[in-house]
Amino acid sequence: MAEPTVTDDPARALTQPPLGRTVSAVADPELGAHLLETRGIHWIHAANGDPYAAVLRGQADDPYPAYERVRARGVLSFSPTGSWVTADHAVAASVLCSTEFGVPGADGVPVPQQVLSYGEGCPLEHEQAPRAAAEVPGAWAGQRRAVVEEVHRQILEGLAPDPSASYAFELVGGFVRPAVTGAAAAVLGVPAGRRGEFAELVERLRPLSDSLLAPQSLRTVRAADGALAALTALLAEAGVSAATDGSDPSSGPSAPSSDPSASSSGPTAPSSGPTAPSSGVAGRPDGALLSALGVTAAVQLTGNAVLALLAHPEQWRELCARPGLAAAAVEETLRYDPPVQLDARVARVETELAGRRLPAGAHVVVLTAGTGRDPGVFTDPERFDLARPDATAHLALHPAGPYGPVASLVRLQAEVALRTLAGRFPGLRKAGPVLRPRRAPVGRGPLSVPVGS
């Protein structure tokens, strides 16, 4: 039986009309029907051979074969889902760096390829203004690192292995997620008494980026929508106001305390520390909330890095012997298996891309994870290599993208987590099957990784 073919004819696109209203403004029957119908359309296109539709289904533990199928179709191809798709590094870079492409459409109206809209509450639906790393005061950057390191150390030292389990501890739920969440709360200046609430809301927001392009269950969407409102309110009530890179809340971070009664989401932090100019506004999603969403990216990046290192034991041993390689491990992971796998943009005006004329409003998807394995840019791209000289040529967490403002904090959290693990558990190894989420084409990272030592 011949494999189905996919044409580049936009007239053959079959898409679901945009919801037209925010999630909170739509009743359950209409929202549920919209989600089911959109998912059905994705399944139809995937069954008919479209690799991007297969990506949107989010049913595979390994999406990279689908990215290679997209690459095989050319540097820019049209998906019958209604999107133009590329895994080509050069084309992707031109889209991400061009002012002719943005996150929303020129009129601000969701395009048909966006499943739904959370409205003003979702920073991923709005343009962000990346902040240069040089603008972060040196003293502040140093204290931020100290706060993150202390939280990660305390969480790892506080692990209590389950004697009835066949493994030492569960990597993601036991260490990575509570450490990253606790450190983010400390950096943001969330009061110690509300960090458990902060952690719960951030976890409910985990599917947010995926839900914009891949239909989730009605319950998941409602939970994320409620968490957005609740987290924004929490940060406003706590007086949290962070700059867009999540690095300088107006009250300054505080040094973690060794108080054993501290919240489970992170050690207690007294209110002290230097202050720095803040560009965020309390209660608005453009600063602190985006930083909170960066928690998910940091957890996923750390999980992907550990899995890649454990799959290459010699590289893990090298990291343990030379902890300074942690930053290189983070960059290589961003190339090899990034936490944010794709970046969707909308053409603001009629423009030409890779020899094709795209109308204003055209939806262009950059498969960031695919570009990191472009053989025209990276030698032996399927190999994870801590010594790769050009690893930073990847396009993950691009400064012009939605996650750009929190990229530095995401990198820092992953780097500190790797250093902490390597110093405490040089004999770390996988001790059971890895559990991954479904319907997650945008964010990639393990949900559960049993490990031994």
Summarize the structure.
The protein has helices at 28-47, 51-57, 64-72, 89-97, 138-157, 171-188, 195-204, 208-211, 218-237, 285-311, 313-321, 326-336, 368-371, 407-424, and strands spanning 77-78, 83-86, 101-102, 169-170, 343-347, 351-353, 356-358, 363-366, 429-430, 450-452. With 453 residues, it is α+β, with helices and mostly antiparallel strands. The protein has a single domain (10-452), classed as Cytochrome p450 (Orthogonal Bundle).
What's the arrangement of secondary structure elements?
Elements: H1 28-47, H2 51-57, H3 64-72, E1 77-78, E2 83-86, H4 89-97, E3 101-102, H5 138-157, E4 169-170, H6 171-188, H7 195-204, H8 208-211, H9 218-237, H10 285-311, H11 313-321, H12 326-336, E5 343-347, E6 351-353, E7 356-358, E8 363-366, H13 368-371, H14 407-424, E9 429-430, E10 450-452
Parallel strand pairs: 2-8
Antiparallel strand pairs: 1-2, 3-5, 4-10, 5-8, 6-7, 9-10
Written account of the structure:
This protein is α+β, with helices and mostly antiparallel strands and 453 residues long. The protein is built from 14 helices and 10 strands. It is globular. The N and C termini lie far apart (48 Å). α10 packs across α11 (313-321) and α12 (326-336) packs across α14 (407-424). The chain has a single domain (10-452), classed as Orthogonal Bundle (Cytochrome p450), CATH 1.10.630.10. The strands form 3 sheets. Strands 1-2-8-5-3 form a 5-stranded mixed beta sheet. Strands 4-10-9 form a 3-stranded antiparallel beta sheet.
